[in-house]
């Protein structure tokens, strides 16, 4: 029975480990602003400057809220879908220059014209638009005041994408006889195998002996509450750069 519980614990822990990685990688579907820009600009060949584009032109939209749009909205939706795939759209009001980003759609001129942001500069944005003089137009500039006068901005970046998270400090350099907490095998690198080593210890498959002072100390990756599942998770967080590893200096 005890053995069964141990195995269950290993399986559950490995599931946690895997779901952690799945969660971490799903976020990569959100483009950076640079990626959004290059995906939109790539469409300049298909929709060149001056190409006729009026309210007779319709395009579907994968972002929700609207199933598609005509004219200016349709063209903004085409570029938006190119940049964001099927990420859901949401509307933000009020609008200001410091809160808009490449790839977002601005609704302007008293809710009558849609444009999409190609670039955000310190005092303006550069846009692309359809149905501007009945045609496609790339590169018009809107001032900060014009941006602030927009009716709303439609974004497809998930909430929190641009919130200021303090970046973890880069890992400090190792000197002789110093190790990263979590680097149980002391090879100078924190790896998945270090996390697995901690898990094996926890389920008594392969114990880290207390008299193996360095390994035993390093296995307590988060430097609190002894060796636990939290330490394996801490190692994985270091791997995906959510945490900075501590340094242990051996005095032996
Ligand atoms: Ca290692
Ligand atoms: Ca710990």
Would you kindly provide a brief summary of this structure?
The chain is an alpha+beta fold.
What key attributes describe this structure?
endopeptidase fold (from Nostoc punctiforme), 10 strands, 252 residues, 7 helices, 33% helix, 6-stranded antiparallel sheet, Type 1 dockerin domain, alpha+beta
Q: What does this entry look like structurally?
A:
With 252 residues, this protein is α+β, with helices and mostly antiparallel strands. It folds into 2 domains: 2-27 and 175-249, Orthogonal Bundle (Type 1 dockerin domain), CATH 1.10.1330; 31-155, Alpha-Beta Complex (endopeptidase fold (from Nostoc punctiforme)). 33% of the residues lie in helices and 19% in strands. The chain is built from 7 helices and 10 strands. It has helices at 2-26, 33-41, 71-84, 144-148, 192-202, 213-219, 229-239, and strands at residues 58-60, 68-70, 90-92, 105-108, 113-120, 124-132, 135-143, 152-155, 178-180, 247-249. It has a 6-stranded antiparallel beta sheet with strand order 3-8-4-5-6-7. Strand 6 and strand 7 (135-143) form a beta hairpin. The longest helix is centred in the first third of the chain and has 25 residues, at 2-26. The model is unreliable at 22-28 (pLDDT under 50).
């Amino acid at each position: 029975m005890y053995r069964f519980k141990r195995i269950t614990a290993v399986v559950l822990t490995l599931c946690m480990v895997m779901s952690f990685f799945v969660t971490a990688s799903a976020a990569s579907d959100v483009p950076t602003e640079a990626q959004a820009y290059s995906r939109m600009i790539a469409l300049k060949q298909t929709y060149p400057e001056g190409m006729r584009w009026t309210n007779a032109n319709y395009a579907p939209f994968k972002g929700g809220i609207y199933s598609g749009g005509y004219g200016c909205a349709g063209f903004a939706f085409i570029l938006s879908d190119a940049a964001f795939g099927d990420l859901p759209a949401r509307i933000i009001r009020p609008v200001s220059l410091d809160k808009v980003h490449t790839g977002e759609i601005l609704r302007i001129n008293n809710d009558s014209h849609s444009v999409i942001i190609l670039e955000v500069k310190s005092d303006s944005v550069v846009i692309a638009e359809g149905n501007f003089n009945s045609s496609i137009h790339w590169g018009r500039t809107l001032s900060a005041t014009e941006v602030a006068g927009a009716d709303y901005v439609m974004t497809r970046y998930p909430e929190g994408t641009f919130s200021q998270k303090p970046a973890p400090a880069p890992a400090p350099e190792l000197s002789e006889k110093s190790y990263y907490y979590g680097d149980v095998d002391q090879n100078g690198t924190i790896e998945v195998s270090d996390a697995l080593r901690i898990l094996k210890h926890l389920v008594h498959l392969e114990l880290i002996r207390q008299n193996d002072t360095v390994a035993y100390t390093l296995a307590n990756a988060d430097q609190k509450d002894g060796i636990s599942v939290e330490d394996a998770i801490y190692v994985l967080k270091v791997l995906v750069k959510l945490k900075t590893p501590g340094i242990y200096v051996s005095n032996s």
